[in-house]
Every structure is written in C-alpha cells, then in structure tokens.
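Entry 12.
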Amino acid sequence: MPLYDYKCTSCNKQFEKMQSFSEDPIKDCPYCKGKNTVHKMISEPAVVFKGKGFYCTDNHKCSCGDNCQHK
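Predicted 3D structure (tokens):
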C-alpha cells in the first residue's frame, strides 16, 4: 500500500498516511481540524535494487576489456 505525504496550509504540519489507490485523498487536517486545508505533496519514490543480478547484469563497469567474463 502506498505511503503519501500531506501538508496542511493552515498549521503547516506535514504528515504521512498509508492509503490504497482507491481511497480519496485527505482534505481535512487531523491536527488543527482545518477543513479543506490539506494537500498531497509530490515526493520521490523509494526504489531499492536488491540482489546481485542488478549490479552484474545492468550496472557493472568492468575493466576487463573485450574479453570480459562478466557480460
């Protein structure tokens, strides 16, 4: 389930909320109780490459030359 960042324009509080894609965005601030004061912030996705395959097959800079066994 995605984690979304929100910010209230009334109290300037920033907070996170885990929501499904089908849920409506939050509009009311849970801290100052402001109505229609919360806006979803744009944030970068958290991407993690795990395992040895990514480095060896896609991102490996080898100094072996043309006879490289890593390709």
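Annotation: Residues 3-44 form one domain. The mean pLDDT is 82.
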